[in-house]
Amino acid sequence: MNGYARVAAERAESLRARGNATILAIETSCDETAVAVVRGGRDVLSSEVASQIATHAPYGGVVPEIASREHVGAIDPLVDLALERAGVGIGEIDAVAVTYGPGLVEALLSGVMWAKAFAWALGLPLIPVNHIEGHICANFAAHADCAPPFLCLVVSGGHSEIARVLGYGRYESLGGTVDDAAGEAFDKIARALGIPYPGGPILDEIAERGDDRAYAFPKPRVEGRYDFSFSGLKTAAITAIRRAEAGGSAVDVPDFAASLRRSVVDALIEKLLRCAADEGAGGVAVAGGVAANRLLRRELAARCDALGIRLWLPPLHLCSDNAAMIGCAAHHRLMAGEIAGLRLNADPSAELFDPRANAP
Ligand code: KG4
Ligand code: ZN
Predict the structure, then answer these.
(1) What is the CATH number of domain 3-137+319-358?
(2) Of ligand 1's atoms, which has the minimum distance to the CA of residue 183?
(3) Is 247 helix (H, G, I), strand (E, B) or coil?
(4) Distance from the CA of 246 to the center of ligand 2, in angstroms?
(5) Quick one: which of 95, 191, 224, 287 has the most CB atoms within 10 Å?
(6) 218: which residues sit within 8 A by CB, 6+ positions away?
């Protein structure tokens, strides 16, 4: 064992015994540089996000190499800001956590390399966090009563899953998308409608003024009881847009956006509540960027209320990518003794439902 590994392991052991480590968390998986200071897995002392949306907007999507360069420039000042806003000195940080995947490899590496250097220089434990797990754990920061077991609908730009949260850090997949993720479908259709990047949130805003019965979309057919499919919907939507254009007209954007949003949200809610009923789940949570969707939040709140199911929705700033959620997830990894060595690498397709990681 080299010097760093021994020091970090000993520190991790004493933090486990103490239980309320102050963690500096770094998130750079896509186009947001984010840094947070989180204590005890739920107490967010600061959470800073530097968005790159304006930089990538002219390209209509995220350019990985530009994202990584922006992260490199943004991390240092953001760490200083996060420490200052948390009222925590660098010497009071007990451990450093970082998103190692899934995400864009170039972007992930910026954060991973920074966190490794920081951990090595200060002899601190390094905690690797799965980005999707981070989204789920955002609910712990927002709701004191949110604790396993519960079901979680994870809906982001790259994932649509129904996860069973068996315990802290223990997840089981009950269903998921067989093709496009919900956020991906929103983004691609928004693009075809001429809505600027990032499409999902803007489409959601426009949909508020539209009639959701104006256009009919095919209902996805999928075999798995809790699985989703959005590619048929996406193709039907893009074909309708192109057909209208070819005929010299255009679809009514607010009505089209509202009808489409209705189809996606209905599919998500139907599967989630079917799963909750089958499982006899008393509580369900939602996580990921699409958890910010206005219709999804309204509709799910009303349905869960009527069914007597406890619903946990993260506040909007904890739905989109942030580092507070990474700090929350890291706490439970640290408590389980799961720290990384300096060989930690970025894993662009990291799995949350790794059978080894989920073994009881
Ligand atoms: O979780 P996230 O910030 O990044 C990933 O991990 O992918 O999710 C981003 C996704 C994008 O597809 C974005 O369009 C979508 O979340 N999104 C929304 C809304 N806000 C963000 N989709 C629908 N309605 C929204 N209000
Ligand atoms: Zn995300």
Answers:
(1) 3.30.420.40
(2) 12
(3) coil
(4) 36
(5) 287
(6) 232, 233, 236
